[in-house]
Amino acid sequence: MKNKRRKMDPRLRPSSIEGTKEPVSTLKVVEPKKYFWIFVSRLTNDTAPNSIIDYLKSNGVESECERIRTKKKQSYSSFKVGIPVDKKSTVLDENFWPVGVRVNAFLNLKKIESPQGRNVIRMNQRTSLGTARPNMQQEVQQHNSES
């Protein structure tokens, strides 16, 4: 029997920090890509992520794309597509896409278990580094005292 590694409760995950000191020549930092994620749907099942990337590139938009796997077999494909934030209004314009393609902001829904043991679906929201969990110690102490 294999040991299954338990996932850490996302509410207890420590927050990260971001350095503020002046850059040094020995460490090179990668500039983070700021993407706005969209949901693209109603494309045929044989549509590949590269087809969407090529379509966007031909219209002047660099992007990242991944197919969304669904539990039920659908008659169409859906994709999660990352576009630069400054191209959001261009890509969310109905005249940008061919007839029949559905596009919307991507909502990252996660199923978590509440402290009462019920499953809750909540939207996964990103916050700036270092401010994700300002009261982290209190949450950990409260969780430990309940266990």
Summarize this structure as a short list of keywords or feature phrases:
147 residues; Alpha-Beta Plaits; two-stranded antiparallel ribbon; extended; alpha+beta; four-stranded antiparallel sheet; 24% strand
What does the model show?
The protein is an alpha+beta fold and 147 residues long. It has a domain at 35-126: Alpha-Beta Plaits (2-Layer Sandwich), CATH 3.30.70. The protein is 17% helix and 24% strand. The protein is built from 3 helices and 6 strands; from the N terminus they run E-H-E-E-H-E-E-E-H. It has helices spanning 49-58, 88-91, 136-146; strands at residues 35-43, 64-67, 77-84, 102-105, 109-113, 119-123. Strands 2-3-1-4 form a 4-stranded antiparallel beta sheet, covered by helices on one side. It is extended, with a radius of gyration of 20 Å. Residues 124-137 have low confidence and may be disordered.
CATH architecture heading of one domain: 2-Layer Sandwich
Profile the largest sheet.
4 strands, antiparallel
The ordered H/E elements are EHEEHEEEH
Overall radius of gyration: 20 Å
DSSP summary, beta strand count? 6
Shape: extended
Average pLDDT figure: 78
Major sheet: arrangement of strands = 2-3-1-4
Q: What's the CATH topology name of one domain?
A: Alpha-Beta Plaits
Low-confidence stretches: 124-137
The secondary-structure class comes to: alpha+beta
Question: β content, as a range?
Answer: 15-25%
